[in-house]
Amino acid sequence: MLTLGCHLTAAKGYANMAKEAISIGANTFAFFTRNPRGGKSKELDEADVVAFYDIWTAEREDGLVPGKLVAHAPYTLNPCSAKDYVREFARMAMKEDLERMEHTPGNYYNFHPGSHVGQGAEAGIEMIAEVLNEVMWDDMQTTVLLETMAGKGSEIGGRFEELAEIIGKVRLNGENGEPDRIGVCLDTCHVSDGGYDIVSDLDGVLEEFDRVIGLDRLKALHLNDSKNPCGAHKDRHEKIGDGYLGLETFEAVVRHQALKDLPMILETPNDLDGYAKEIVLLREMAKKR
Ligand code: FE
Ligand code: FE
Ligand code: ZN
Fold it and tell me: Is the pTM of this model over 0.90?
């Protein structure tokens, strides 16, 4: 059974997201931890969290079992900005988000590593690792995920090597018996835009991922088709099957031994109805003999 869902709006709280997810056949979902345009986050509503677990963990008519959630940090955060106050906001927001996520323990917190804005990838990687080491702590129950990026502009994370370097600099990376609280979320649109040819060589790309980062670090997927060909570095998502990746690529992804059990999140240009249809389509693909 796939753990599959889509990005939902968090505006009406957790319980509402659980209802929406269930209504479209999803058993995971993603949401922004705060307004992506920045600004202050809402206080956590304890009653809403209780209501959420009641709905989310109840036995379902469709028999689906809930998997881990994949929260998304605002994409405007830049932990490797050249400006002190921008890095300071990233630090504050991530710390606050991670503290709030302890109320829904055991889930994922995905973020875009950042853009080095001309300072160079090496300097950027250093700054990102520094922020992670400040906002993460020993017995935290959330796993932080670095998202693979399209390599647009000065984005860091378009190459697997960059993600591996960041992970190598994070103190809580599972070495020396410490808990492993850092991983990677692979976005299908982004890796293709980044130049990894998952259309004709998914196995080869995953072998490369394994060699550079280690497949044990791969914790979640973003399923998006791309409006642009491999290597375009554009980051424009398309509906499943309507872009350069195509249906066969998604069939290969949802059936792949190394991927089929990971939480999969759709971030395609859709309303809830459109997501419901893509969820049906992908669940069928996973079953098909
Ligand atoms: Fe993202
Ligand atoms: Fe994504
Ligand atoms: Zn994207």
Answer: yes
